[in-house]
């Protein structure tokens, strides 16, 4: 067996300049968005890799976005640049705004060889697979990444979860610190990081540690590494959820309630070791002591994702799948969202949202947030404002035509002002042709379309700010870019 088998088991499918970014008002035809990515900063052959696969130079994928809890004008976004077809990218770019998204600047954290990392400080690593940011109450920015030393799933390749810090809001970055580094029949996957907005010295880093034993059975506990001194040191990683053999956790992010209690929603995936049939559940655990101890899991809901596909050709599309998304509003109401096909009898996914008003102890039944039941909605992000307005972004195929050579896709925001009971939506962008985006073949010989599994969304005082990926129709030298927009109003 190899690491490819590990990764297959937990998935069914799976940008910058100093120029001004003028945030437009919303309208029924769409919201004005401005490009924040620019041509790749990485030089040809910078990592020395010559694998038998396609490098999509200038492609930017899977952006994330964080907002400063002490200053909502301070935003930090991340995205991967130069995507390899067989997985990972040559590096990451960080985009930072200090004026609420009106202007942006870029920086390159030294997380990979192409990004200028020294040996032992990022330079060991050829590719980046995931990147995630968070901003502490004191303005410190933390960035975590999953990086690898060689080709994806290479027998000699090691992978590591790193953390780097910025004391100047995202302009410059420290040398990364390796929190965990392993190889062989284990994969530490999809790290997310959360700075505690109530006590700035606490930072929580979570991920799934998947492994396959010699007898073919698998393990997949959720791990936590915690810093209680503002990222100066990290406690040894330890499991906070372990479902036993043939059960994996799959990460979301730690949510911090206004009273300081931590809630961690995640996906629990169980697999029959013989038939390999899987079951999926949304679950949550809690900590009342800043992550030292955690409760037993509470079930949120069963999950039934059909996955996104080109409706004309059947080509799979990397999407949020069984990723959990979570957010907390200013009143302490918790929200979770995921893709689910239950409301179409398993035919296609909608975006569904469940909420908890008692700190994650009990949860509502999920309701549909996306607008059209006749097409798939996929690749979502979730955020909640202090006033209780909750928003979710997603893509769908409403603009699609019968032409199999194109796949027009739109990007939407749905909002709710009644704790997620009812939803209204507006178009953010599109249509754009999804067929031009990079292809990936991580999970076997059938390539699928890849622009990322999720995108950046944060809640400002009176708006939602989105950092999202967009295809460049017909441009095979620059297939995707990253755009930002703020969408004001109550929904």
Give an overview of the whole structure.
The chain is mainly β. The protein has one domain: Neuraminidase. Helix content is 1%, strand content 46%. It has one helix and 36 strands. The strands form ten sheets. Strands 12, 13, 14, 15 and 16 form a five-stranded antiparallel beta sheet that branches. A hairpin with a 4-residue loop joins strand 5 (71-84) and strand 6.
Question: How far from one another are the termini?
Answer: 50 Å
Radius of gyration: 20 Å
Q: In this structure, how is the largest beta sheet organized?
A: 5 strands, antiparallel
Which parts are unreliable, with pLDDT below 50 for 5 consecutive residues or more?
1-30
CATH domain topology: Neuraminidase
CATH class: Mainly Beta
Number of domains: 1
Class by helix and strand content? mainly beta
User: Given the structure, what is the number of helices?
Assistant: 1
Name the features:
mainly beta, 1 helix, globular, Neuraminidase, disordered N terminus
């Amino acid at each position: 067996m190899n690491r490819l088998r590990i990764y297959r088991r937990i998935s069914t499918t799976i940008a910058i300049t100093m120029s001004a970014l003028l945030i437009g008002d919303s309208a029924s035809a769409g919201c004005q968005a401005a490009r924040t990515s620019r041509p790749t900063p990485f030089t040809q052959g910078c990592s020395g890799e010559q694998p038998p696969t396609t490098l999509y130079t200038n492609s930017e994928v899977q952006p994330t976005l964080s907002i400063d809890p002490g200053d909502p004008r301070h935003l930090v976004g991340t995205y991967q640049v130069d995507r390899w077809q067989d997985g990972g990218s040559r590096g990451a770019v960080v985009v930072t705004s200090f004026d609420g998204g009106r202007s942006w600047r870029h920086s390159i954290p030294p997380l990979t060889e192409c990004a200028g990392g020294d040996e032992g400080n990022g330079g060991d690593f050829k590719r980046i697979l995931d990147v995630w940011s968070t901003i502490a109450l004191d303005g410190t920015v933390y960035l975590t990444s999953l990086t690898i030393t060689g080709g994806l799933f290479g027998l000699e390749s090691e992978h590591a979860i790193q953390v780097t810090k910025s004391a100047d809001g995202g302009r410059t970055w420290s040398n990364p610190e390796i929190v965990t580094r392993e190889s062989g029949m284990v994969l530490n996957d999809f790290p997310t990081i959360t700075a505690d907005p109530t006590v700035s010295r606490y930072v929580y880093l979570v991920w799934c540690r998947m492994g396959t034993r010699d007898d073919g059975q698998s393990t997949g506990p959720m791990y936590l590494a915690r810093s209680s001194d503002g990222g100066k040191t990290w406690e040894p990683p330890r499991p906070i959820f372990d479902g036993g053999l043939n059960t994996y956790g799959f990460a979301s992010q730690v949510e911090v309630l206004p009273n300081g209690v931590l809630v961690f929603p995640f996906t629990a995936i169980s697999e029959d070791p013989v038939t390999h049939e899987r079951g999926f559940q949304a679950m949550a655990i809690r900590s009342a002591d800043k992550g030292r101890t955690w409760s037993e899991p509470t079930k949120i809901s069963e999950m039934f994702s059909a996955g996104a596909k080109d409706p004309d050709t059947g080509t799979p599309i990397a999407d949020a799948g069984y990723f959990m998304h979570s957010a907390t509003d200013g009143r302490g109401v918790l929200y979770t969202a995921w893709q689910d096909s239950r409301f179409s009898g398993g035919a296609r996914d909608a975006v569904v949202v469940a909420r908890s008003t008692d700190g994650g102890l009990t949860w509502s039944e999920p309701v549909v947030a996306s607008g059209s039941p006749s097409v798939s909605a996929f690749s979502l992000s979730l955020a909640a404002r202090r006033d209780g307005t909750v928003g979710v972004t997603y893509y769908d195929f409403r603009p699609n035509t019968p032409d199999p050579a194109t796949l027009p896709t739109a990007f939407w925001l749905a909002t709710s002002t009644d704790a997620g009971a009812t939803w209204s939506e507006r178009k953010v962008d599109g249509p754009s042709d999804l067929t031009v985006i990079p292809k990936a073949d991580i999970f076997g010989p059938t390539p699928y379309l890849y622009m990322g599994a999720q995108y950046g969304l944060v809640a400002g005082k009176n708006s939602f700010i989105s950092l999202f990926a967009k295809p460049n129709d017909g441009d095979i030298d620059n297939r995707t870019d990253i755009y930002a927009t703020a969408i004001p109003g109550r929904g």
